[in-house]
Design brief:
It is built from 6 helices and 2 strands, in the order αααααββα. The chain is mostly helical.
Length: 144
């Protein structure tokens, strides 16, 4: 059973996700930067560590070191309750990049100015090949 269906029911259709997140999940080999971006996206949008790790494993087949790095970000952010700025992430509830903040500051949403780099949403025909879109569609179908 795929995790993608549950994530889409929780966050919304992948067609409304930030294109970079989709690329990092399905197209590029994991790096510390892409894993950090994925961790921030899942953590900031309230996805449990278990589900986020399952999705990461299903989509990327990461190494043990990659998974450990990903887990360490969740652990760090859980400990930083009184920190006003931890990182940035694409908040699915408002469709903007906002600051990831400690628990004591979560009620204060701070939007990150991105006028120089407009947000691209969804798969984008030029970014995702037909084959890649078919593989993703099969994964999505397996979760229903």
């Amino acid at each position: 059973m795929s995790t993608l269906g549950y994530l889409e029911r929780t966050l919304g259709s992948m067609h409304s996700w930030h294109q970079d997140i989709l690329r990092y999940l399905f197209l590029v080999a994991p790096t510390h930067y892409t894993l950090l971006e994925l961790a921030a996206f899942f953590y900031g949008n309230g996805i449990s560590l278990r589900l986020a790790t399952e999705c990461l494993t299903e989509c990327l087949s990461p190494s043990q070191d990659d998974v450990a790095f990903f887990l360490s970000k969740y652990a760090l952010w859980d400990r930083c309750t009184d920190v006003p700025f931890l990182y940035e992430y694409y908040d699915m509830s408002v469709g903007l990049v906002v600051q990831l903040r400690g628990a004591e500051y979560r009620d204060e949403r701070v939007v990150v100015e991105e006028s120089c780099f407009p947000i691209k949403i969804g798969f984008g025909v030029s970014v995702f090949s037909f084959r890649a879109r078919c593989v993703i569609a099969e994964m999505r179908a397996a979760s229903h």
